[in-house]
Specification:
It is elongated and about 90 Å long. The chain is built from 14 helices and ten strands. Helix 1 (6-25) packs antiparallel against helix 6. It is an alpha+beta fold. The N and C termini lie far apart (80 Å). The strands form three sheets. The chain has a six-stranded mixed beta sheet. A two-stranded antiparallel ribbon has the order 1-4. The protein has two domains: 6-67 and 122-230, no CATH class; 236-400, no CATH class. The structure holds zinc ion. Residues 58, 60, 63, 65, 116-117, 119-120 line the site of zinc ion. Zinc ion binds next to helix 4.
Length: 407
């Protein structure tokens, strides 16, 4: 603002102070009346939804074909179908004003993402048919599509954040402009610059952290898995754990593991987490890039060293790490209302690193069944507490937790 006399300058400063005071009190004031606010929000959601459903470049390294729009991260006819009730499962979903809710989702739409072209979809056909992961190659491929789904999701979210940020800045600047023009109608404003806006900073930080994570995963586990799939060989930092307990949830997501050592200090790894139940039990995949193998081993041997520990860990993945999971509706609905509400609040508000146990149990009936098997097992009767120890001679890269007791 130039060539303004003192009186006008005072009027404009007052108008600016008032505008900024309202803005600081409630940032959504820039969107205008409630109806416009809601419309803007629903437009964003609809746009994000449309963009997620669009074909993208195939996620297989080096492939330039367009992806089909509905690759499944988790096999539809295997783990997902196992717990569907009337063709539906429940998935956590964050909704404006309602917070976190459990939403019914049709089997056809559960875990789909625009992942691979038709040719590379065929890579998964073998274990899609057999419905279980039978070979090291099946396991690597399943982990690969979990990793690809996260990469596509992170890129999609990052693009969406950029879009929201651009529109937010436009709304905010128009709001300030309108308030100044209200004070002086013939004011010429060439540009508006605002520093220290917390909303803007939050979005910039989110975009930065997504970009860094995409780069890290792309040059790490994504590269390791591509190489292993192409050569049919290759050492992976991956554990495939088989347990006889049938957990009523399918999950595929990522979590952060942190560990502090005297030297070099804080270590951090991104772990890919998969839970795939079958009529015979549950297969669990935990993987990271080759460079973080020691950290992964530390986590598996310390936090996943018994069937009960694994059950608690999976519950904490569901609450603190990822919302990409699908539960049998009746298993969730049978939980007391207050517990469901607390779990949803924890999912919305609490995000911790891996290794933090959830204070509440999600799988009440599964836990009871396991306790019953355990306490009546000959192993427990003979050895008491020692029976929970886990066999340590599993081959590298694979870990089988022994069944406790008869069944
Ligand atoms: Zn392809």
């Amino acid at each position: 603002m130039t060539n303004i006399d003192k009186k006008t300058s005072d009027i404009l400063n007052r108008a600016l102070d008032d505008a900024m005071e309202s803005f600081e009190r409630d940032h959504t004031v820039i969107y205008g009346p409630e109806t416009v606010k809601l419309k803007t929000y629903f437009d964003f959601v609809a746009r994000a939804d449309r963009s997620w459903k669009k074909s993208k470049q195939c996620a297989f390294q080096g492939c330039t074909n367009e992806s089909i729009v509905r690759s499944h991260t988790i096999q539809k006819s295997g783990p997902l179908a196992l717990f569907a009730e009337n063709g539906h499962l429940l998935q956590p979903s964050l909704i404006q004003n309602d917070g976190m809710i459990m939403k019914l989702i049709g089997l056809q739409n559960a875990s789909v993402f625009p992942g691979f072209c038709e040719e590379h979809e065929e890579l998964f056909a073998r274990f899609e048919r057999t419905k279980t992961l039978q070979t090291p190659s099946d396991i690597a491929l399943q982990c690969f599509r979990m990793v690809c789904r996260e990469l596509v999701r992170l890129q999609h979210e990052s693009n969406h954040f950029k879009l929201i940020l651009d529109e937010y800045i436009q709304f905010r600047n128009n709001y300030i402009k309108a308030k100044l023009l209200e004070a002086k109608a013939d004011l010429k404003i060439s540009a508006i610059t605002l520093t220290g806006d917390a909303v803007e900073t939050t979005f910039i930080e989110r975009i930065k952290s997504h970009t860094a994570l995409i780069a890290n995963v792309s040059s790490g586990i994504y590269k390791d898995l591509n190489a292993a799939i192409r050569s049919g060989d290759g050492e992976l930092a991956l554990f495939h754990i088989d347990i006889p307990d049938i957990l009523p949830v399918c999950l595929s997501g990522l979590g952060t593991l942190q560990m502090t050592e005297e030297k070099p200090g804080l270590l951090e790894a991104t772990l890919f987490l998969g839970v795939l139940p079958s009529p015979k039990g549950t297969e669990v995949i935990v993987a990271t890039d080759h460079g973080n193998k020691k950290l992964l081993e530390y986590y598996v041997y310390n936090c996943l060293d018994s069937r009960f520990a694994l059950l608690s860990a999976i519950e904490s993945w569901m609450i603190y790490q990822t919302d990409h999971w699908f539960i049998k509706p009746s298993e969730w609905n049978i939980l007391p209302m207050q517990k469901r509400e607390t779990l949803l609040r924890l999912m919305r508000d609490d995000h911790t690193t891996l290794g933090h146990e959830c204070p509440l149990s999600v799988f009440d009936s599964t836990r009871k069944k396991m306790l019953n098997i355990f306490e009546t097992s000959q192993e427990y009767i003979n050895n008491g507490e020692r029976a929970v120890e886990v066999q340590r001679n599993s081959p590298p890269g694979s870990k089988r937790i022994p069944q406790l007791g008869p069944n």
